[in-house]
Write a structure and sequence with these properties.
It is a single chain. This protein has 144 residues and is of the alpha+beta class. It contains three helices and ten strands; from the N terminus they run βββββαβαβαβββ. The strands form three sheets. The chain has a five-stranded antiparallel sheet, with no helix packed on it. The longest helix is centred in the last third of the chain and has 9 residues, at 110-118. The radius of gyration is 16 Å and the shape is globular.
Amino acid sequence: MSVSIRDFGKSTTGETVKLAVLKNDFIEVQLLSYAAIIHRIIVPDRKGNPVDVVLGYDTLQEYLDGRPDPCDFLKVPHHGRAEKNSEAFFEAVAPRYAVITCSEEEPPEDEVLALLKAAGAKTYLTSGGTVTAVSDGRTLTVTQ
């Protein structure tokens, strides 16, 4: 596996936003340090051709210019801690499904669960078992 990090742009506060690229023989994941955005996930299709399965913007300015399109699936940042998540964030991304990586010993905060419910997200906790998301490019199925 290889990991590379480069500058992607500047936030509205002047902070440098980084792009981290994690890559192995089969998959490439691109993450932005701005709002923990998954910028791209590139996987091979049935013929082995690379396909971008996350519809991210091409530039940082596009992320900064307003409300992003609603997302189908959100990995909730910071294990569901309230101080790291906000109502405005969940309303902006409007996820259909959300997964929180957590444990029985350290569950997500009730406030975050309530915000996700209010945003209309069906929420899964990894403390309840493996969460699987499968898409054919048109439909998304999430199970636990």
